[in-house]
Amino acid sequence: MESSQTKNFTLKYFPIRQDYVYAQISTQMKETDFNQLTGITPGETQSADGRALILCFDQSGSMSGKPFEALQKGAIMIGESIFATKDYEKVSVCYYDDSVHAMEANDLIGYQKYVNSQCIRGSTNFVAVFKYIEQFLTQYSGRIRDVSVIFFTDGQDTCNNKEVIEKSLQNLKAYLQKNNLNSRFLTVGFTSSHDAPFLNRISNTGSELGNFFYINTDTGDYSQQIQECLSQSVSMAGRQDGLALNISSHAFELKQKLNLQKNYVIEESKENEDGDGDAEMNEEIKMDDNANELLEFSEQIIIREGALQDLRGELVFGKKTINITFELVHVENPPAEVLSRAQIKYINKLIFETVQEIQSDIKVRTHTELLEYIMNLDKELDSFVESSMKIKDRDLRKVIMEEIGECKDKTSKVMEVLRASTGGRINNVQIAQLNDLAYKAVRKRGLQKKLDERAVKNEGFYKKLDQQLKGVAKKMDFKALREEYKDLIDMIGSCPISTNDLIQTMEESDCMCLGLDVGRSEAAIADPTRLVIKDIIPTFMSADSFLTVAAFTIKRNEEAHGGYDVKNQGQLALGVGRENITGIMPLYLFKEHWEFARRKAPPVYGFITTLDVMGYASSQYFTVPYLVLLKALEKNNSQKVEIYSKIVTLVLETCKNIMSFNEEHRKMAIQQIVDFHKNPESRTADIVASIPVMLAQLYVITLVENYESYLPEDFKLDQPTLANIFRFAFEEHSRRCIRSDAEILTKNTILKALFPDYATYVDEIMKVKEIEIQNEFKKDDKQGASSDQFSEYTSQANFFKALDQANLKTISNEEESNEEEKKEDSKISGGEEKKQDEKVDLIKAADDAVAKLPWQNALKIDGSDSLKLVSSSQKYFNKKQQDLIILANLLKVGDLKGFGDLPQINNDNEVMLSLFLQNAMNPKNHHRRESIQNKNYREILNTQDSQNYLRNILLSQLRNEFAGRESAIRSVYLGAKSSAQVQLFLDAPNIYTAAAIMCQNHFSLGQGDYSLLIQALIDQSLTLSDARGKLQLVCQGQYFGTKLYKDAFKIYPANFNPCKTSLYRLYMKLVKNGNKVTHEEFLNLFPHIAAKAEVWDKVLDNSGKIAENLDWFNLHNAQVKQQKLQEKNQRLAQQSKKLKF
């Protein structure tokens, strides 16, 4: 690596116990310097160059069924995240069984295609995976500098012994160290059968501490667990915003990589400045991008005190490094909160080390000593509670108390496992539980990484907002506002918690908000459109009051917020009608109030979306209000109560204000709508996260003053354009409402929907076609038939006789004419000639059926599959998506009451059938994208489009059905013909005729003729003539240089030996029981089984039982065992010799 200048870092430390210290490493620099070091421009993230992700998924036989289905769903899910974040230069997906099947994925489509192509295979081979990882990194040697490996398995290596597996892992670790690669291994152990200790060692293989997940399949539905574990692993592997610092100490053999978190420094002078509300009014709610901001980078670690004496460090930026010098500062009296956190972090470290010792082969302490040790740690944590309660800062006190609680959970669970272990023995499941527990702190950092990164950014941001709020309040004339907005103040009323009215709330630098009942899944952390507005509560309360009460309620009941499960009902506050309130929305009531509301919105949205006020992202600010607007419109439409009409006005005014005064948001919203209208590829879920939110933004745009001036010159929001947008939106949203476990429609399902009588129609056509095919085969048979069934083979048989020098004297001219055959041919050509002219054209039959548009009649029949598809899909959409229908009506797309009322559809069931059928054929997002890219997707805007689409679909499926049926019929007759030819071979009077039959009938291994011949030789052994000769033909495959099998071999084999079982059965039938072949003749044909045949000859009776020469048999077995043992010892000796220098 290239090394350049030196930088100074501060390392403050204080001792905690024994020879360990708690150290804080930090530095400060201007944002311009940071950008210069990292090579990024403001607003961008660090480059993905040099970063690789390797996904290793188990596809062994034990994963078959639901486990593999769940894994595949998880793999598809994380793929969208991987390629959306663009965190990696190289992504490799590796499925493994007894070997590795891998590909390098360059885009999401290629990744999804490869994942979907995988299936269950053989056994499990970890060694092959480790070798592949090394080969992949070697391929990009010098280019990849950071690699993350996600390793998923449900079992243990069944292909290699323990020593080989361990050596392979150590070789990989040595390779990573030798090439100075930053690396981390994130393992997922699935089921109780996985090797928990070994997966733990894999987690410790990288330069950074990895992670271990344990998925307990006994809990029932583990599909969601798999998806969460994979998602968290990907999150932990992603880029971190900060400084990468490597520290080392030769004295203590210390090597550790740290990520110093980035934060903004709030200077004293700036903290006291008043925010200019008017100047800030039109700015987007986001972090100030001033390039001269001062940044601080810091991280806290536990380290041996002796390591400080020769501690060295280097910052890593790609291939460039910067040497670090540390200014050591000993802290005499650390603050109580810092001391508490240090002690908790140290106990977490001790718990982790204890879990590692429990599963180690070398144990320093006994089982009883370990249990007592953990009990003492638990008591020590109790003593921290009292000291932590004395911390004055409420927020810090809350954080530390939570950390103590989490640490106590660990100690109690470790004690539970140790007590439950029998006789001090810890089984695999218990080890897995302990590993899962020990890595919890690491995992929490990974799971919360998005939130932590936001917290780092938002901490300084919130401080700025607080200062601005104080400045805004100082400039307000609250008396004048009270007089001006008297009616509005009366309508809003007082906050049910603080009892302050609107103006009193503003005097406290707070704002009034609308009450909500919300739910969310973990997906809402990354995608705020996943937030669910369950209900709007006609109660107005202040932001601070809600957040304060929420914090207090959660402290008493940690599930009060409802968690990351939409189905759970939270209860954080009560409305005036005692309704459950779990969220709020700051409102635009008037200009002065908005000065407070827009600054209070970030922590509120952060909390209701991620359950963490520090989890705010600007995407929430531009999403949540539109979600509330959709719910308000739906509520007002269904209940027709005046208060909801007023709420719609307030929420709409808030959204309109956000759209009007945030140029970047407005540009993005308009561009998304333009792309959505023009290009089908811009309508899928990876481009438009939420169709309802997009349409709500469209509605708000049309309310912005002079909105036409913001639109592109070639794009107008006239009625035809709006109609098309809603037509595409309704179709796409309907597709997304399809069940998540839905599969692509099968051929039979499509045919039944479009052509209910297809089975009868196809059967009638194929009956005639089968007669035609039957006549074809009969003609072939009659052409070859004669009174002497072997006459057509005479010429070829004589040729073989001529080649057999031993039979030259017996050659005779046996060429005879066959008048009967000629007569029969005449009958065929005369009587069958008309039938030849009446061939069934299956393509025409399919065309004729489609030309009648059979789905039109089906749509008129109650209970038909096509009508069910239309009615059920339309009914579900009309019931669940009233908000979209309301928006369409507000924009005067039409007087819509449901999906079918769209102008392009006009309740035409044929059009709706084509739309819903196309959706059902592309239920998943990647299905739709593939359909678009393969040009199979059709935009259906009218009846003609609909008919063309349905005609093409039905024609394709019907032709496939005919082709499949014809192929099946021909296979039956070909099989019958093959059986007849095999029987003819068996009945042949001599070897020459038998060889001629094989040659002229084109026998083939690929068509199964060889298997039929072997089985027939076994089954009809007693009636065979020249059994030795026919066995020779079948197993040698040639006669006097003429190849008897017509398969396309690159090199024609010298022989075709049957399997061991078939050889045994042939020997018993032809040699032992039938006397058709002598023992010596059999060995001449199959010399490789001489030893086995000797045993069969001497020991077995005619029934195959061991009954003769028992003494000889026992002696023979002993000699065989001794020989195998000698061969094994010789092989081991040769290996040992090779390993010596």
Automatic annotation (TrEMBL):
Organism (species): Stylonychia lemnae (Ciliate)
Domain VWFA: from-to ranges: 52-234
Biased composition (Basic and acidic residues): 820-839
Record lineage: Eukaryota, Sar, Alveolata, Ciliophora, Intramacronucleata
InterPro entries: VWF_A, vWFA_dom_sf
Protein name (Swiss-Prot/TrEMBL): VWFA domain-containing protein
Signal peptide: none
Gene3D superfamilies reported in the protein's UniProt record: von Willebrand factor, type A domain
PROSITE patterns: VWFA
Region of interest called Disordered, as start-end residue ranges on this chain: 811-839
SUPFAM superfamilies to which the protein is assigned, alphabetical: vWA-like (SSF53300)
Domain of life, source organism: Eukaryota
